[in-house]
Amino acid sequence: MMNQYQILKDKQQKEFNAFPMGAAFSQKQFDEMMAKWGLLPTDTDKILHIGGGCYIRKADREAFHALVERLAKEKEDALAADTTGDGIIKDMFLYELANHEYCITYDLEDTLDAVGLTVDEINADKRLLRGLEKALSQYLKDTKNY
After folding, report:
1. What mean pLDDT is reported for the chain?
2. Angle at 126 between CA 142 and CA 80, to 5 degrees
3. CB neighbourhood size of 13 (10 A)
């Protein structure tokens, strides 16, 4: 069965990637990005830096914020719908444990950072705790075969 979290993550990444955004790490890249938008390199009053070398047009600011908020709510709703922790919550932890090579580090910090949760938040929510426990058990069982 496909990992529900990965399906959601891939869908959301595709939507995010489709947003008209640019990235520039050199003057040449900046000039090319601006030209792509029909702007001059001096038209910096028409763009916004959103971090990590990424830019959007000011005209797209509201649409960008709406997209980010909608994607966050979609993830939040999907996790809330998992009433036992056996579905997308377990899949979320399973995906991020593998993504952050827990079988090598045995450190949950990167996994928890990736999902935006703390140990206290997990311990306070039976669904999250059950999902993490099930994911850890499955992940460690699966990695023993390597």
Report:
1. 96
2. 90
3. 11
